Model the fold of this input.
Amino acid sequence: MHDVDAWLADRATMLSTDTVHRLHGILRAVLRRAQAHDHVKRNVALLVDPPRGTAGRPSKALTADQVARLLAAAEADEAMRTYVVVSLLTGARTEELRALTWTHVDLEAKPPTVALWRSVRAGGETKTRQSRRTLELPARAAEALRVHRMSQRHVQLGAGDRWQRAGLVSARRWAPHWTRRTSAARSVEWPRSPAWTRRRGRRASCGTASCRCSRAA
Done:
């Protein structure tokens, strides 16, 4: 029991309270299994209260003001505006949006939906199998996609044979993926302390949108 106390106290000096509680839960489960097989006489982890860990790291999500400035900056570029709006309002990962095709966007459904079943990872797999999901599109995101689809069709007609027919929502001019250096975020003055990245747009979505989602079967 004293060993468990000492071990958890040591972990608490470098881990968050939530992580310490998870470690305590894992230890309880391991000792319960060991006890069931007569490897230990009792589960001493049940007699220990996990200590409080270190304070969690500050949130890296965008503030409401940063979200507003990002959306305003993206207005100058219709295609990037769509990318930013959908990213913020659905919480889709950048790797998922870059692989998103129009066949996985249903703007005629009631409500409109987007199926995030693919990514630009090897083999098109999402981060985990559980990451595959279908999201209900907020009205603003659905409208941005409708405008973008119409605009993309005009660009496609002008491009002719040069258009790469990948069916990607994020096809930019005649390239199959977004240009990495093109980002509305570059035109926004962000606080200097935490370096902003596009991935934080996904974290911002937690406080920006409320979407219902269902896991893909």
Q: What stands out?
A: Strands lie at 105-106, 113-116, 133-136, 213-215. Residues 2-47 form one domain.
